[in-house]
Amino acid sequence: MKKKKFTLRTVTDIKVFLLFLLEYIRYPVDRTTLINIVSENTDEIIIDYDECLGELSDSGHVWFDEVDGEAYYMISDSGRMVAKELFDALDEDFREKSLKSAMKHLSLAKSGATTKTAVTEVEGSRYKVTLSLQDTSGQLLEASLVVSSLSEAEKIRQNFETRPEAVYRGILFSATGRLEYIS
């Protein structure tokens, strides 16, 4: 059975959707990838997406750059403020489906994410591992776990430092129950 796609009917709908995707991806994304995500989730393209991206760039809601003939886009702070007010105008099921598609393209490494970890001894001869992840937009994750041994705490620390994206996605999956975070 063919998956049902959503139709964006107005230029405003398209702009909000593009801002929604750019906010979620959180780092510069090439036009090809962005249009692929859009086409995976919408019916035929009835309005010029490039025109919408140009208008978003002209209004300062999206930053634009071209490298080696490929256009790159990233949401600006003003775009974030506008978009957060308008995200709910998009159908909730459509947003969820679009996030699944965008997850395939999400890369913490491309977003400039950095990790911090700490292991501290707590009462009862147990150890607290604190994991922190942030990108250029700010804090993405801060979580603490208490385990029974120093060796287990060090394994958690090392796993997070070597595979932060896998841990981040695993925590998102656990917190939301959305399988797309681990696929």
What does this structure look like?
- It is a single chain.
- This protein is an alpha+beta fold.
- It is 46% helix and 23% strand.
- It contains 7 helices and 6 strands.
- A 3-stranded antiparallel sheet has the order 1-3-2. A 3-stranded antiparallel sheet has the order 4-5-6, with helices on one face.
- The model has no long low-confidence stretch (mean pLDDT 82).
Short description:
The protein is of the alpha+beta class and 183 residues long.
Describe the structure using short key phrases.
183 residues; alpha+beta; 3-stranded antiparallel beta sheet; 7 helices; 6 strands; 46% helix; elongated
Helix content: 40-55%
Can you list the strand order of the major beta sheet? Answer: 1-3-2
Order of helices and strands: HEHHEEHHEEEHH
Strand content: 15-25%
Largest sheet: 3 strands, antiparallel
How large is the radius of gyration? 19 Å
Mean pLDDT: 82
Helix run count: 7
Distance between the termini: 21 Å
* Number of DSSP-assigned strands: 6
Could you say which structural class the secondary elements and strand pairing correspond to?
Answer: alpha+beta
Gross morphology is elongated
Low-confidence stretches: none
Q: Could you give the topology of this structure?
A:
Layout: H1 11-25, E1 29-30, H2 31-41, H3 49-58, E2 62-67, E3 70-75, H4 77-86, H5 92-103, E4 114-122, E5 126-135, E6 138-147, H6 150-162, H7 164-176
Antiparallel strand pairs: 1-3, 2-3, 4-5, 5-6
Helix pairs in contact: 1-3, 1-4, 1-5, 2-5, 6-7
